[in-house]
Amino acid sequence: MKKNIMLWVGSVMLLFLLLVTFVGPYMSIIDRELKPVPYHWGPNNKLILPPYKYSADNPLGSDKKGVDNLSRLIVGAKLTLMLTVSIALIRYFVGVPLGLFARKKRGLAHHILGVMNMVFSYIPPILAAALFISLPLLVHQPLRLFWIVVFLGIIEAGRVGYLVQQQTFSVSQEPFVEAGNALGLSPRRLSLKYYLPAIMPDLIVNFCLDLGKCLLLLGQLGVLGFFLTQRFSNEIGMVNISNDWGGMLASHTYDIFVSKFQNVLIPAFAMLYAILTFNVFGEGLRHHFNRRSSSSKTL
Predict the structure, then answer these.
(1) What's the pTM value of the predicted model, to 2 decimals?
(2) Contacts for 92-95: CB closer than 8 Å, 24+ residues apart
Protein backbone atom coordinates (compact mmCIF):
# COMPACT_ATOMS: atom_id res chain seq x y z
CA MET A 1 0.00 0.00 0.00
CA LYS A 2 3.13 2.19 0.31
CA LYS A 3 3.10 3.43 -3.30
CA ASN A 4 -0.61 3.15 -3.89
CA ILE A 5 -1.39 6.86 -3.89
CA MET A 6 -4.99 6.37 -5.02
CA LEU A 7 -5.74 4.02 -2.14
CA TRP A 8 -4.23 6.47 0.35
CA VAL A 9 -6.11 9.42 -1.10
CA GLY A 10 -9.34 7.43 -1.34
CA SER A 11 -8.97 6.22 2.25
CA VAL A 12 -8.48 9.76 3.54
CA MET A 13 -11.46 11.02 1.53
CA LEU A 14 -13.60 8.12 2.77
CA LEU A 15 -12.55 8.70 6.38
CA PHE A 16 -13.49 12.39 6.09
CA LEU A 17 -16.87 11.46 4.58
CA LEU A 18 -17.58 9.00 7.40
CA LEU A 19 -16.50 11.51 10.05
CA VAL A 20 -18.82 14.15 8.61
CA THR A 21 -21.63 11.60 8.43
CA PHE A 22 -21.43 10.07 11.89
CA VAL A 23 -19.59 12.68 14.01
CA GLY A 24 -20.67 15.86 12.22
CA PRO A 25 -24.25 15.92 13.59
CA TYR A 26 -22.86 16.16 17.14
CA MET A 27 -20.83 19.33 16.47
CA SER A 28 -21.99 22.38 18.39
CA ILE A 29 -22.66 24.44 15.25
CA ILE A 30 -25.02 21.81 13.82
CA ASP A 31 -28.75 22.03 14.45
CA ARG A 32 -29.79 18.36 14.44
CA GLU A 33 -33.49 19.24 14.68
CA LEU A 34 -33.26 21.47 11.58
CA LYS A 35 -35.54 24.12 13.05
CA PRO A 36 -36.69 26.78 10.60
CA VAL A 37 -35.85 30.35 11.62
CA PRO A 38 -38.62 32.54 10.14
CA TYR A 39 -36.78 35.86 10.68
CA HIS A 40 -33.68 37.55 12.09
CA TRP A 41 -33.19 40.99 13.55
CA GLY A 42 -30.24 42.66 11.84
CA PRO A 43 -28.34 45.89 12.59
CA ASN A 44 -30.55 48.86 13.47
CA ASN A 45 -33.41 46.46 14.24
CA LYS A 46 -33.80 45.65 10.56
CA LEU A 47 -36.01 42.64 9.92
CA ILE A 48 -34.23 39.98 7.80
CA LEU A 49 -36.20 37.18 6.20
CA PRO A 50 -34.85 33.87 4.80
CA PRO A 51 -33.07 32.66 2.81
CA TYR A 52 -30.17 34.00 4.84
CA LYS A 53 -26.79 34.76 3.32
CA TYR A 54 -23.48 33.29 4.44
CA SER A 55 -22.67 34.26 8.02
CA ALA A 56 -21.18 32.86 11.21
CA ASP A 57 -24.58 31.44 12.16
CA ASN A 58 -25.17 30.07 8.66
CA PRO A 59 -21.78 29.21 7.09
CA LEU A 60 -23.51 27.92 3.93
CA GLY A 61 -26.55 30.18 4.13
CA SER A 62 -30.08 28.89 4.66
CA ASP A 63 -33.03 27.73 2.62
CA LYS A 64 -36.30 29.62 2.16
CA LYS A 65 -37.61 28.44 5.54
CA GLY A 66 -34.50 29.57 7.37
CA VAL A 67 -33.09 26.05 7.91
CA ASP A 68 -29.30 26.15 8.05
CA ASN A 69 -27.86 24.57 4.89
CA LEU A 70 -24.74 23.20 6.62
CA SER A 71 -26.86 21.46 9.28
CA ARG A 72 -29.18 20.01 6.67
CA LEU A 73 -26.25 18.80 4.59
CA ILE A 74 -24.55 17.04 7.50
CA VAL A 75 -27.73 15.65 9.06
CA GLY A 76 -28.80 14.35 5.64
CA ALA A 77 -25.46 12.64 4.95
CA LYS A 78 -26.35 9.52 6.93
CA LEU A 79 -29.64 8.95 5.10
CA THR A 80 -27.97 9.61 1.75
CA LEU A 81 -25.24 7.04 2.41
CA MET A 82 -27.77 4.54 3.76
CA LEU A 83 -29.84 4.84 0.58
CA THR A 84 -26.73 4.55 -1.59
CA VAL A 85 -25.41 1.47 0.20
CA SER A 86 -28.87 -0.16 0.30
CA ILE A 87 -29.33 0.20 -3.45
CA ALA A 88 -25.85 -1.20 -4.14
CA LEU A 89 -26.38 -4.12 -1.73
CA ILE A 90 -29.64 -5.09 -3.43
CA ARG A 91 -27.83 -5.11 -6.79
CA TYR A 92 -25.23 -7.52 -5.48
CA PHE A 93 -27.58 -9.68 -3.41
CA VAL A 94 -29.63 -10.25 -6.57
CA GLY A 95 -26.89 -10.13 -9.20
CA VAL A 96 -24.18 -12.28 -7.60
CA PRO A 97 -26.30 -15.42 -7.00
CA LEU A 98 -27.84 -15.08 -10.47
CA GLY A 99 -24.38 -14.81 -12.03
CA LEU A 100 -23.11 -17.82 -10.08
CA PHE A 101 -26.08 -20.00 -11.05
CA ALA A 102 -25.79 -18.86 -14.67
CA ARG A 103 -22.05 -19.56 -14.98
CA LYS A 104 -22.64 -22.49 -17.37
CA LYS A 105 -24.58 -20.10 -19.65
CA ARG A 106 -27.65 -22.27 -19.63
CA GLY A 107 -30.61 -22.98 -17.36
CA LEU A 108 -33.23 -20.83 -15.63
CA ALA A 109 -30.81 -18.34 -14.04
CA HIS A 110 -29.18 -17.71 -17.43
CA HIS A 111 -32.58 -16.97 -18.99
CA ILE A 112 -33.60 -14.66 -16.12
CA LEU A 113 -30.31 -12.81 -16.49
CA GLY A 114 -30.84 -12.52 -20.21
CA VAL A 115 -34.34 -11.08 -19.75
CA MET A 116 -33.15 -8.57 -17.14
CA ASN A 117 -30.31 -7.40 -19.36
CA MET A 118 -32.56 -7.25 -22.41
CA VAL A 119 -35.21 -5.18 -20.62
CA PHE A 120 -32.98 -2.74 -18.77
CA SER A 121 -30.14 -2.43 -21.28
CA TYR A 122 -32.49 -0.65 -23.69
CA ILE A 123 -33.80 1.76 -21.05
CA PRO A 124 -31.42 4.21 -19.35
CA PRO A 125 -31.54 3.66 -15.55
CA ILE A 126 -32.60 7.24 -14.90
CA LEU A 127 -35.54 6.90 -17.32
CA ALA A 128 -36.63 3.56 -15.82
CA ALA A 129 -36.36 5.03 -12.31
CA ALA A 130 -38.32 8.15 -13.27
CA LEU A 131 -41.10 6.07 -14.85
CA PHE A 132 -41.33 3.83 -11.78
CA ILE A 133 -41.38 6.70 -9.28
CA SER A 134 -44.10 8.42 -11.31
CA LEU A 135 -46.47 5.45 -10.98
CA PRO A 136 -49.75 6.64 -9.39
CA LEU A 137 -49.65 3.64 -7.03
CA LEU A 138 -46.53 5.06 -5.39
CA VAL A 139 -47.71 8.64 -4.90
CA HIS A 140 -49.31 8.05 -1.49
CA GLN A 141 -47.80 4.62 -0.83
CA PRO A 142 -46.62 4.35 2.84
CA LEU A 143 -43.72 2.14 1.72
CA ARG A 144 -42.82 4.43 -1.18
CA LEU A 145 -39.15 4.77 -0.16
CA PHE A 146 -38.75 1.00 0.30
CA TRP A 147 -40.12 0.17 -3.16
CA ILE A 148 -38.07 2.89 -4.82
CA VAL A 149 -34.85 1.61 -3.23
CA VAL A 150 -35.67 -1.98 -4.26
CA PHE A 151 -36.40 -0.94 -7.84
CA LEU A 152 -33.27 1.20 -8.13
CA GLY A 153 -31.28 -1.82 -6.98
CA ILE A 154 -32.93 -4.29 -9.34
CA ILE A 155 -32.61 -2.24 -12.54
CA GLU A 156 -28.81 -2.68 -12.49
CA ALA A 157 -28.71 -6.16 -10.90
CA GLY A 158 -28.67 -7.74 -14.35
CA ARG A 159 -25.45 -5.93 -15.21
CA VAL A 160 -23.84 -7.16 -11.99
CA GLY A 161 -25.08 -10.69 -12.67
CA TYR A 162 -23.68 -10.62 -16.21
CA LEU A 163 -20.23 -9.55 -14.94
CA VAL A 164 -20.28 -12.34 -12.33
CA GLN A 165 -21.38 -14.85 -14.95
CA GLN A 166 -18.51 -13.92 -17.27
CA GLN A 167 -15.95 -14.05 -14.47
CA THR A 168 -17.15 -17.37 -13.04
CA PHE A 169 -17.32 -18.90 -16.52
CA SER A 170 -13.67 -17.92 -16.99
CA VAL A 171 -12.75 -19.33 -13.56
CA SER A 172 -14.59 -22.57 -14.36
CA GLN A 173 -11.97 -23.26 -17.08
CA GLU A 174 -9.16 -23.22 -14.52
CA PRO A 175 -7.54 -26.61 -13.65
CA PHE A 176 -8.27 -26.34 -9.92
CA VAL A 177 -12.02 -25.93 -10.63
CA GLU A 178 -11.97 -28.87 -13.03
CA ALA A 179 -10.29 -30.88 -10.28
CA GLY A 180 -13.10 -29.90 -7.91
CA ASN A 181 -15.67 -31.05 -10.45
CA ALA A 182 -13.81 -34.34 -10.87
CA LEU A 183 -13.96 -34.84 -7.11
CA GLY A 184 -17.74 -34.43 -7.25
CA LEU A 185 -17.99 -31.25 -5.14
CA SER A 186 -21.49 -29.81 -4.92
CA PRO A 187 -22.29 -26.54 -6.77
CA ARG A 188 -22.72 -24.81 -3.40
CA ARG A 189 -19.27 -25.89 -2.24
CA LEU A 190 -17.71 -25.00 -5.56
CA SER A 191 -19.22 -21.51 -5.31
CA LEU A 192 -18.06 -20.94 -1.74
CA LYS A 193 -14.60 -22.51 -2.05
CA TYR A 194 -13.59 -21.70 -5.62
CA TYR A 195 -15.70 -19.14 -7.47
CA LEU A 196 -16.39 -16.51 -4.81
CA PRO A 197 -12.78 -16.32 -3.52
CA ALA A 198 -11.53 -16.03 -7.11
CA ILE A 199 -13.87 -13.15 -8.05
CA MET A 200 -14.02 -11.45 -4.63
CA PRO A 201 -11.38 -8.74 -5.41
CA ASP A 202 -13.29 -7.69 -8.54
CA LEU A 203 -16.58 -7.76 -6.63
CA ILE A 204 -15.20 -5.45 -3.93
CA VAL A 205 -13.80 -3.00 -6.50
CA ASN A 206 -17.00 -3.01 -8.56
CA PHE A 207 -19.10 -2.55 -5.41
CA CYS A 208 -17.14 0.59 -4.50
CA LEU A 209 -17.54 1.96 -8.02
CA ASP A 210 -21.24 1.08 -7.99
CA LEU A 211 -21.70 3.14 -4.83
CA GLY A 212 -20.75 6.16 -6.91
CA LYS A 213 -23.19 5.13 -9.66
CA CYS A 214 -26.02 4.69 -7.14
CA LEU A 215 -25.38 8.13 -5.68
CA LEU A 216 -25.23 9.64 -9.16
CA LEU A 217 -28.63 8.09 -9.91
CA LEU A 218 -30.08 9.62 -6.73
CA GLY A 219 -28.62 12.98 -7.77
CA GLN A 220 -30.12 12.71 -11.25
CA LEU A 221 -33.55 12.01 -9.74
CA GLY A 222 -33.09 15.06 -7.53
CA VAL A 223 -32.20 17.28 -10.50
CA LEU A 224 -35.37 16.07 -12.24
CA GLY A 225 -37.37 17.06 -9.16
CA PHE A 226 -38.35 13.60 -7.86
CA PHE A 227 -38.87 13.24 -4.11
CA LEU A 228 -38.13 9.84 -2.58
CA THR A 229 -40.47 10.61 0.31
CA GLN A 230 -43.19 13.22 0.13
CA ARG A 231 -46.47 14.49 1.48
CA PHE A 232 -49.26 16.51 -0.08
CA SER A 233 -49.75 20.16 0.87
CA ASN A 234 -52.91 22.03 -0.10
CA GLU A 235 -50.90 25.19 -0.74
CA ILE A 236 -47.98 23.99 -2.88
CA GLY A 237 -48.72 20.36 -3.77
CA MET A 238 -46.15 17.66 -3.09
CA VAL A 239 -43.52 18.55 -0.50
CA ASN A 240 -40.26 16.76 0.17
CA ILE A 241 -40.05 15.34 3.70
CA SER A 242 -36.62 13.73 3.39
CA ASN A 243 -33.25 15.21 4.31
CA ASP A 244 -31.22 13.23 1.81
CA TRP A 245 -29.02 15.18 -0.61
CA GLY A 246 -31.15 14.20 -3.61
CA GLY A 247 -34.20 15.60 -1.81
CA MET A 248 -32.30 18.84 -1.17
CA LEU A 249 -31.61 19.09 -4.89
CA ALA A 250 -35.21 18.31 -5.81
CA SER A 251 -36.53 20.94 -3.39
CA HIS A 252 -34.56 23.71 -5.08
CA THR A 253 -34.46 22.85 -8.76
CA TYR A 254 -36.85 25.70 -9.53
CA ASP A 255 -34.28 28.14 -8.09
CA ILE A 256 -32.18 27.49 -11.19
CA PHE A 257 -34.75 29.26 -13.34
CA VAL A 258 -34.39 32.45 -11.29
CA SER A 259 -30.56 32.26 -11.29
CA LYS A 260 -30.31 31.25 -7.62
CA PHE A 261 -27.82 28.41 -7.50
CA GLN A 262 -26.75 28.41 -3.85
CA ASN A 263 -29.17 25.77 -2.55
CA VAL A 264 -28.61 23.58 -5.63
CA LEU A 265 -24.82 23.71 -5.69
CA ILE A 266 -24.38 22.78 -2.02
CA PRO A 267 -25.88 19.24 -2.23
CA ALA A 268 -24.49 18.87 -5.77
CA PHE A 269 -20.93 19.45 -4.55
CA ALA A 270 -21.49 17.12 -1.59
CA MET A 271 -22.62 14.38 -3.99
CA LEU A 272 -19.69 15.08 -6.30
CA TYR A 273 -17.27 14.69 -3.40
CA ALA A 274 -18.85 11.40 -2.29
CA ILE A 275 -18.86 10.00 -5.86
CA LEU A 276 -15.19 10.95 -6.30
CA THR A 277 -14.42 9.31 -2.96
CA PHE A 278 -16.01 5.99 -3.97
CA ASN A 279 -14.32 6.04 -7.38
CA VAL A 280 -10.84 6.93 -6.11
CA PHE A 281 -11.09 4.39 -3.28
CA GLY A 282 -12.34 1.70 -5.68
CA GLU A 283 -9.53 2.34 -8.18
CA GLY A 284 -7.04 2.29 -5.32
CA LEU A 285 -8.36 -1.11 -4.26
CA ARG A 286 -8.09 -2.33 -7.87
CA HIS A 287 -4.39 -1.37 -7.97
CA HIS A 288 -3.88 -3.04 -4.60
CA PHE A 289 -5.47 -6.34 -5.71
CA ASN A 290 -3.67 -6.28 -9.07
CA ARG A 291 -0.33 -5.75 -7.37
CA ARG A 292 -1.02 -8.53 -4.86
CA SER A 293 -2.06 -10.87 -7.67
CA SER A 294 1.15 -10.09 -9.62
CA SER A 295 3.26 -10.69 -6.51
CA SER A 296 1.64 -14.06 -5.82
CA LYS A 297 2.20 -15.14 -9.45
CA THR A 298 5.85 -14.10 -9.20
CA LEU A 299 6.29 -16.16 -6.06
Answers:
(1) 0.90
(2) 92/157, 92/160, 92/203, 92/207, 92/210, 94/153, 94/154, 94/157, 94/160, 94/161, 95/156, 95/157, 95/158, 95/159, 95/160, 95/161, 95/163, 95/164
